[in-house]
Amino acid sequence: MSDSKKLDKNGDPEIKPKKWNKYALSCAILASMTSILLGYDTAVMSGAGIYIKQDLKITDVQLEVLMGIINLYSLFGSAVAGRISDWIGRRYTVVISAVIFFFGALIMGIATNYPFIMVGRFVAGVGVGFSLTIAPVYTAELSPASFRGFLTSFPEVFINSGVLLGYISNFAFSKLPLKLGWRVMLLVGTIPPIFMAIGVLAMPESPRWLVMQGRLGEAKRILRRTSDSPEEASERLADIKMAAGIPIEFDDDIVQVPENNNHGKNVWRELILYPTPAVRHILLAGVGIHFFQQASGIDAAVMYSPRIFEKAGVKSDGHKLLATIAVGFSKTIFILVAMFLLDKVGRRVLLLSSVGGMIVSVASLSIWLTIIDHNPDEKLTWAITLSILSTLSFVGWFSIGLGPIAWVYSSEIFPLRLRAQGTSMGVAMNRSISGVVTMTFLSLTNAISIGGVFFMYTGISVVAWVFFYTMLPETRGRTLEEMQDLFGTFWRWRLRSKELEKDRLIELEKSHHEVK
Question: What count of other Cβ atoms lies within 10 Å of the Cβ of residue 455?
């Protein structure tokens, strides 16, 4: 009996440590590097916005629209990325995302007025939508089950790395002349896409996409390089063929596209119009986790951290930008911790712990900011310190769970034929809510105070914890083709999961004795 199928104390498949698959690791890193673009843009605008407002003479409302509109523009990219990736492949779709973002960053950097820079935001937003949709899908489809959580967390790792680089860029170029500083900050964003577009060309295509094209020989070779053993490669290929509707006995060296390949047709019918109970549950889980990831207010904390520190009592622009670097470090350090825990403790435990920590942190931040707000004539050093620490704690708890798990979870639960479009729906929800949060933060702060805004995010985080507890099963150790068995029974999913695993163990035990 395979050790990987033993149950742990929670009734989930026990995962034993295996050697690193360096080929799969390098492919995941290359694909996920596109996510650095979103992180850099989010963070660099937090500092550049201060100087854009002064240089272009725009209002607070125009500024918050400028900051958040890229998230809504990204919907155009995510809406078509899934279909395009089913048509031309996952790899070339990653290249397209890098090229589009390059031109977006270039336009923003040379903009001379508000409408001009908004054009750049639109182009960059489309590139962001492409990258956020396809990078997690590609990585999940390439990764062996034993390291899938680790590898599919890389998009969030590079988002956080981009955030840190954006904050450092803000601080480094803040001393330049007003008309030059913010432009240099934005133009630096044109450098990463150049290297990414070149590096991605060295990546293999997704084996699951190749199977859907009938290119089974190529898929087989890639699976042998990205699996933990030849036996696992054969099992993965058989599972993928079954999910794609290709007979198991179909010649693995065939090259032509099977007649049942429809390049994504009828997918929306299966996802939206006539979903099975399992697909309905998967869609709710995949879209819901992205909704709550952004509704928690994380992008407000990241993008408006200088404004938060200003409200907390930090007045110097240099000190505010320096404090934001600490936010970037907190996000980056804790995402590295999360990477090593995802496949050890599981998605569910890490997610619930993360959201619980976020609730305590953001509630504390709300309290300290409210105290400071009600004592405008006093400099409460202790409250300022606690506000900064609460902000760091908030982004840290986010990065250790909810941040990476939203991308990991949504990229691994959808069936093969629905994966690209299903993931794009999650990305669309993610960017829509992020846009709403970032485009309303300043207005809400003026209406109900900054402490009141974070109290609102606290309430949303509590609802998120309840949703995750009741609706999301553990997926650690499952192959992508097994996911559908976990969903469809809502609150009874855990009992069903254990029953399925016990039945499978009994069958494996019988086979083991027969071999003996």
Answer: 18
Q: For domain 23-211+274-485, give the CATH superfamily.
A: MFS general substrate transporter like domains (1.20.1250.20)
For residue range 93-103, what is the model confidence (pLDDT) as tens digits?
888 888 898 99
Query: Is 283 exposed, middle or buried, given 0-12, 13-18 or 19+ CB atoms closer than 10 A?
Result: buried
Q: What are the angstrom distances between the C-alpha of 134 and each of 29, 61, 91, 224?
A: 13, 32, 9, 23
CA 100 to chain centre: 19
Give 468-473's long-range contacts (Cβ < 8 A, gap of 24+): 468/289, 468/292, 468/348, 468/351, 468/352, 468/355, 469/352, 471/281, 471/284, 471/285, 471/288, 472/285, 472/289, 472/347, 472/348, 472/351, 472/409, 473/348, 473/497
What confidence tens digit (pLDDT) does each residue in 233-249 have? 887 888 777 766 676 55
Mention every residue, 6+ apart, whose C-beta is less than 8 A from residue 299: 42, 71, 434, 437, 438
pTM over 0.85: no
CA distance 12 to 493: 12
What residue spans define the domains of the chain?
23-211+274-485
Which own/partner pairs from 365-369 qualify as long-range (CB within 8 Å, at least 24 positions apart)? 365/390, 365/391, 365/394, 365/454, 366/451, 366/452, 366/454, 366/455, 366/458, 367/451, 368/312, 369/308, 369/311, 369/312, 369/449, 369/450, 369/451, 369/454
Q: Where are the alpha helices (DSSP H) in 414-449?
A: 419-448
How many whole angstroms from its chain centre is CA 294?
11
- The residues, ordered by sequence, that sit 6+ positions from 467 with a Cβ below 8 Å of its Cβ are 288, 292
Give the largest Cα separation in the chain, rounded: 82
How many CA atoms does the CB half-sphere of 68 hold within 13 Å?
26
pLDDT digits (tens, 9 = 90+) for 343-384: 788 888 899 999 999 999 999 999 999 998 888 777 778 888
Q: Which residues neighbour 38 within 8 Å (Cβ) at sequence distance 6 or greater?
A: 128, 131, 132, 159, 162
